[in-house]
UniProtKB/TrEMBL annotation:
<protein>
    <submittedName>
        <fullName>Phosphohydrolase</fullName>
    </submittedName>
</protein>
<dbReference type="InterPro" id="IPR006674">
    <property type="entry name" value="HD_domain"/>
</dbReference>
<dbReference type="InterPro" id="IPR003607">
    <property type="entry name" value="HD/PDEase_dom"/>
</dbReference>
<dbReference type="InterPro" id="IPR006675">
    <property type="entry name" value="HDIG_dom"/>
</dbReference>
<feature type="domain" description="HD">
    <location>
        <begin position="23"/>
        <end position="126"/>
    </location>
</feature>
<dbReference type="Pfam" id="PF01966">
    <property type="entry name" value="HD"/>
</dbReference>
């Protein structure tokens, strides 16, 4: 990572000091996925990596004010990148990728870099880490297991079919299979009845 990217990383880390389901550790994983997928798919890394770094920078703002973090984050990324005189043509691509990354944004990612960021963000909601993040978020919101399993069915089980790149689809297959096996086991245990001899 060059000095420019390191400076961006430190800027984002300062904004995301807290931990949690959307903490800086999530951003780091998304960056690593973007590096891997981007290398395979031939992405412009000077668009993709800044977009990955900035994609959730406004999450704390959303939690405090309700503003949509993808819109606020795109504005924050644009302001920061202009302040360091980042190439204008790349700023446009970064801002679009941040704005379009969210599962529920309704904005279609129109560039390769935006598609990879969307894929990477969705991949981090799948598999073992996705399970951990789901229960973490339920705990943060004061909710229980039923809420988490609802989230699996409403969102996470749909993510495999939303991948844009071949590289992400390959990763998603394994993470989806793990997710399905876990949910089946969890729901089986939740429905299990106490044996009669133990209920006396």
């Amino acid at each position: 990572m060059d000095e420019e990217a390191t400076a961006m990383l430190n800027y984002v880390r300062t904004a995301l000091r807290g931990s949690g389901a959307h903490g800086f550790d999530h951003t780091e994983r998304v960056v690593r996925l973007c590096e891997m997928i981007g290398a395979r798919e031939g992405a412009d890394m000077r668009i993709l990596i800044p977009a990955a770094l900035f994609h959730d920078i406004a999450r704390p703002l959303e939690e405090e004010t309700g503003v949509r973090h993808e819109e606020a984050g795109a504005a924050m990324a644009e302001a920061y990148l202009r302040s360091i005189r980042y190439p204008e043509d790349r700023i446009v691509g970064i801002v679009h990728a941040v704005r379009a990354h969210r599962y529920s944004s309704g904005i279609a990612p129109e560039t390769l870099e935006a598609r990879i960021l969307s894929d990477a963000d969705n991949l981090d909601a799948m598999g073992a880490v996705g399970i951990a993040r789901t229960f973490m978020q339920s705990g943060e919101q004061g909710r229980g297991i039923a809420d988490a399993t609802g989230h699996f069915h409403e969102k996470l089980l749909n993510l495999k079919d939303l991948m844009y790149t071949e590289s992400a689809r390959n990763i998603a297959e394994k993470r989806h299979a793990f997710l399905v096996a876990f949910i089946e086991a969890l729901e089986g245990e939740m429905k299990a009845r106490t044996p009669p001899e133990l209920s006396r």
